[in-house]
Amino acid sequence: MDLVFFIGFMRFLGLSFFLVVFLSACGGEEPQADAAAESSPAPAASNQHERVIAGTEPLPSELHQAVRDLLGPIYQGIDNVRYAASATDLNGDGHPEILVYPMGPMVCGSGGCDLLVLAKREGRFALHSRTSVVQTPIFLSETKSHGWNDLVVTVGGGGVVGEPLRRLRVQDERYTANASLADAASADQRGPLLLAAGIDVVQASPLSASEDAGLSPLERYAGRYQGVLPCASCPGIETELVLQAQGRFELLEVYREQGDEPFMTLGQWQLAEGAENVFVLTPDDQSEAPRYFELDDQGATALDSSGQAIESDQPLRLAREGGDN
Question: For 211, which of 23, 37, 169, 270 is 20 to 30 Å away at the CA?
Fold first, then answer.
């Protein structure tokens, strides 16, 4: 496949922005409806690019210990718990709350993982809320409930029909306990991106050499990849690819000098049949063709539609966050 065809193919996919309805059935107590919940609009970002990208604040290193101290009692006896985390002020008091998304085969189910919100009480962080069956990405909402920003999350899996986007509100001093039972949300209710599995992902405890050798291909290459890929009609496509160890991917693309509007594609990723390090990304929308990337510890190389290398002088490489590039 020549470069021109590949670039046209990338642009076609980039201009497709779909979120597919997933089926979800998850246990948990249904939160009581709160008719008195306030709804006040938050200031809108100046453009769609800021609405999706701006406001993400990775968790400072000195706060990771507070997260680990709380994860221990919650997931006691479970090994290899990883988490994505970020800090942002959710209640307008001038102090950041911590959002934590734990990951691992023993802490997540088919419907997703927990979302933990930690707030400072008497000088120490404590668990404020725990919401089950959440999938990423997680966004700040443009509305507030009882002084706390609402959160827009994704749900999927199981057998309950509903919108894939849900709005978590503070009710009875806590966010909704089960994301599948939360109110449906629309795409235009999303504000800044707060969390995606792959952003600021760390181990709750370091992997030993023997444990690292036993990682599955998805666990080994899960992470965040960034770079600029070629574009036939623009200076380049700013690309951010987040690969989750559970087999989901999030692809965010911005076409330079074409309005800077971001396009997101969601789907599943897996090792290509008979390959060692070539992976196929299958969008949720079945009308979109799969994409192929060759992965290594330092980054990802875009391949053609059959999973073969592309002969080109243009950069086809995405750098892996934390990789030794």
Answer: 270
For the chain, give every residue range classified as CATH 2.40.128.640.
3-16+214-320
225, 319 Cβ separation under 8 angstroms: yes
What is the Cα–Cα distance from 33 to 295, expressed in whole angstroms? 46
Backbone φ and ψ of 14, nearest 5°: -60, -35
Contact 132, 178 (CB under 8 A): yes
CATH placement of domain 3-16+214-320: 2.40.128.640
| CB-count burial class (<10 Å; 0-12, 13-18, 19+) for 94 | exposed
Which tens digits make up the pLDDT trace of 195-252?
875 555 555 554 333 344 446 788 788 888 999 999 888 889 999 998 887 788 989 8
Q: Are 169 and 34 in contact, with CB atoms under 8 Å apart?
A: yes
What the block records as the tokens of 75 is 């997931």
Q: In whole angstroms, what separates CA 48 from the centre of its chain? A: 18
From residue 234, alpha-carbon distances to 6, 102, 253, 258 in Å are 14, 38, 13, 7
Residue 122's identity, in one-letter code, is E
How far is Cα 99 from Cα 115, in angstroms, rounded to an integer?
7
Place of tokens 């951010």: 240
Residue type, 69: D
- Helix residue ranges per DSSP H, the chain: 3-14, 48-53, 64-74, 209-213, 217-221
- What would you measure as the largest C-alpha separation in the chain, in angstroms? 62
pTM, to two decimals: 0.49
| Residues in a beta bridge with 165 | 154
Yes or no: say if 178 and 31 are a contact pair by the CB < 8 Å rule: yes
Q: Which amino acid is at 241?
A: L
Rounded Cα distance between 105 and 315, Å, is 35
